[in-house]
Design a protein that fits this description.
Helix content is 22%, strand content 46%. It contains two helices and eleven strands. Strands 3, 4, 5, 7, 8, 9 and 11 form a seven-stranded antiparallel beta sheet that branches. Strands 6-2-1-10 form a four-stranded antiparallel beta sheet, with no helix packed on it. This is Late embryogenesis abundant protein LEA-2 subgroup domain-containing protein.
Amino acid sequence: MAEKQGLNGAYYGPAIPPPRHYHRPGRGSSCCGCCCLVTFLLKVIFTVLALVGLFLLIVWLIFRPINKVKFHVTDVALTEFNHTNNILRYNLTFNVNIRNPNKKIGIYYDRIEAKAFYEDQRFGYQSLTPFYQGHKNTTVLNVVFKGEQPVTLQGQELTQFNSEKASGLYSITLELSLRVRFKLGKVKTTRFKPKIECDDLKISLNGLSAAAGSSGKCDINF
């Protein structure tokens, strides 16, 4: 290395090299990656919380007591209900009113499964056509169960059936399993699955009437 001399010929020693800066590879990019991941996760969490909050708000608006959607059995026709050799033969029709009293919220009924029970045993099933119910609207569902199904009645259950057969008045439960969405303006909620239970029905044989001995009102369970 050449030695440096001053203008007056004085010797100042070898030239001092510039300071070296050391860089640890990967550290900066790793920090950036961690920050980006945390930011992305926070955005996802906030988005999910916002959607859940909107969903809960709309559900509250729909099912709060003053604006509750109402299900009501209005008419029932039972023309056959015969149990022999553990086979139940039946012919049963329900009319169910669904009242949406909300002024701005519509309801998509994407799936409607109707089931009939006697002594906690299912004997009837019908899948109904999906539909959209507008605000402040009443829709009537016509549910028909007809056929035969193995139903085992023993002990107290058989005694209860024979008693109801003698009176001509049967205790039958109607259940609706739903998959619905709510619409508020252009916003649609995700699907959820309420269950409608009409379990206080006393139905007379061979006659078209309202659900005898009961109000016909149904309960909504989530």
